[in-house]
Amino acid sequence: MRFNIGFFIREAFKNIRLNLLMSVTAVTTTFICILVLGAGLLVSAHVEGLIGSVREDVAVTAFFQPDEKEQKIQAVRDSVEGYSEVSSVKFVSKAEALDNFKQTFADQPEIYEDMGSDVLPASLEMQLKDPSDADAVASKLEGEGFAKKDLSYPQQTISRLNEVTGYMIWGLYGATALFLISSILLISNAIRISIFARRKEIEVMKLVGASDSFVRTPFVFEGLVEGLIGATLAALAVIWLNYLFVDWSRQALPFVPISGNAVDTVLILAVLIAVGVMIGVIGSFLSVTRFLRV
Amino acid sequence: MIQFSNVTKVYGNDTVALERVNLNIDPGEFVFLVGASGSGKSTIVRLVLKEMEPSAGAIYVNGTRLSAVPRRSIPRHRRNIGCVFQDFKLLPNKTAAENVAYAMEVTGQRPRTIRTKVPQILDLVGLAEKTGKYPDQLSGGEQQRVSIARAFVSQPPILIADEPTGNLDPDTSVGIMQLLHRINRIGTTVLVATHDKEMVDVMRKRVVALEEGRIVRDKVKGAYADEV
Predict the structure, then answer these.
(1) Contact between A209 and B79 using a beta-carbon 8 Å cutoff
(2) Per-residue model confidence as pLDDT tens digits over A171-211
(3) Among A107, A123, A153, where does a domain finish?
(4) DSSP B163
(5) Does residue A115 belong to the interface with chain B, where contact is any CB pair within 8 Å?
(6) Residue A147 and residue A151: Cα distance in Å, rounded?
(7) Partner B contacted by A11 (CB < 8 A)
(8) Which superfamily is assigned to B29-38+74-219 in CATH?
(9) A209:B111 CB<8 A
(10) Chain A: residue nearest B90 by CA?
(11) How many other CB atoms are found less than 10 A from the CB of residue A281?
(12) Is A280 in contact with A242 (CB distance < 8 Å)?
């Protein structure tokens, strides 16, 4: 038996046109669900981005003795740069330390007026690849001859942060999963209603000798087209909202490190459209099948 | 062509629609199936189409035992039987021509064949002028003609009509019966379930009368009721 794809596509578009109200309902439902789902993904992505940037800020600082020799300092620097846990090392000399201090208290010059350039120690500031390695790095530094009191790292902050962000990320995944499930239910329900309205037609097609797949294919194409339109519009709206949000946050919340890079635009676009199309196809497939038993 | 052997059909647990029916229809016959509502006419039609299974007994159509036809082959089975219904069962979103074409499309026929055959068959049933009309723009008789054209366009060996004139006035009914008669004359086996007494009496064809699920009379060149 020959299958004429052109015939099925023509049938699908004709059905969309003839049942315009139902088609618009299905497209609108898809649009709203995918929009909400996309908004959920956006919030997830931004919160993960935020958490990431806060964690990146966790640094270990090691202070040298005020009388430490230049040679020793250089040797420690070289060794620390070789640590696998450390992503970057910055040496702060005594003079730089004083400059930083002066900057911090720029409006209270009386504090540093009488300070000699020798008072503040030189230090190494290390950014870690993974903040949970702070303990390991600290004990390595102790091996280099640093006393515990000369090492500064926010150990408690780190473990607390890991715990809280762990919960938050799982919470976000859970919420996204709920959005996804409710989208699937809502969209397939809209499709089922539109197909229910045409169950008599399906019965007639079967009585004339159409096979199940012959009846089903135009409906599935229809679901695909409706899902594609609704999801594409929603995905574009999500991308646009994200752009607006990032733009707004730069001006309104300059101290919050929200970044446009936190969101992979192409990935979100692809995921949302794929979800919409899949729900459209699977939803119409299952709904038609229900009325095929004639 | 169609053979019922000791067929019983029970709906639910206790409603007997057919009771041990034996019926043999030869190729090329024209048979009226008559009886009051609920006598079992529609049950016979639905069994032949394999819309449902008999409770007991065997049905053969075109030499095939229906219980041996798997579910996925039902569409193929139905393509051997043209069907005409009391309520026409046309697709409302398709024009007369598209409704007829659909029956050819389901069998995977070439677009070129469809394009040439559809106007021919619509011309045959007297609707050459109305090919582009939708069902709701046609009269009842015209819709029934479209439905006959659709049933017959693939030239199936069997044509079944379930109360084809049930919704039509007597004048229109005559036209429909003449059409069925012409289709029968070119060799198609025609089975018409009806309680249109006048029509049956005029046509003088084989009449099988049903009463409460049993065949009470089977007469060649019969009438609707017993003749005294």
Answers:
(1) yes
(2) 877 887 887 788 778 777 877 887 787 888 888 888 888 88
(3) A153
(4) S
(5) no
(6) 7
(7) no
(8) P-loop containing nucleotide triphosphate hydrolases (3.40.50.300)
(9) no
(10) A204
(11) 21
(12) no
